Amino acid sequence: MAVSFPPESLAPTDWFARFRERYDLAASDPTTELGVFYDRHVRFEQGPHSETEVFGEYTTAEWNAIMTGLMGDLAREYGFYQTTDPSPRQDVLWFRPVEPMTLAAMIVQEDQATEAVAELEIPHVLSGGAELGVLVLYPDYPMPQGARDLDEATELWKHRVEAELARHRPDRDFLLLTLGTNSWDLPSRWRGYAWDTSTHRLRLLTTTDASQSSASR
Question: What pTM was computed for the model?
């Protein structure tokens, strides 16, 4: 896939389509880091394992590192420079290679879906000054009160994030990206919700949106 140069504008629909495409390709390839994770999960689930075999599921740090690497590949596809916030937050930052360098995207991965997401993380993303803010959330970890499954947990958190965004009324693009903590399906079950500045609502990005975005490239 050709690199766009000079770097193009970041539209949530296109970003989500490209991310989904790159994620699924990597997950289905056993030679990639993400593909190794998928293979590792299958082997772990198949069990049992010998007493001398050291084999376990991924850690949060491992998963976040894989996701950061995947974001880096996507950043290069767009023509951006990726770095991480040097603070303990480790936010993923995309910069446009122009003078002065400008912040194109801020990608924040949340390990746990707690009240801190609404109280701290959304304001943090919105105040970062990026053209596109992306919040990666695993809404079923922990399972929120009142939810019985991933779909209900996702819907609850979608409304929670939407209400917080409506309170702040951001004028920049914002994308909520969700996946279940034990979701290993291919095609992947990532969901993307883009903030609509005209309706002040989060809009679910569909496979039709993704297909149209891919066809336009």
Answer: 0.89
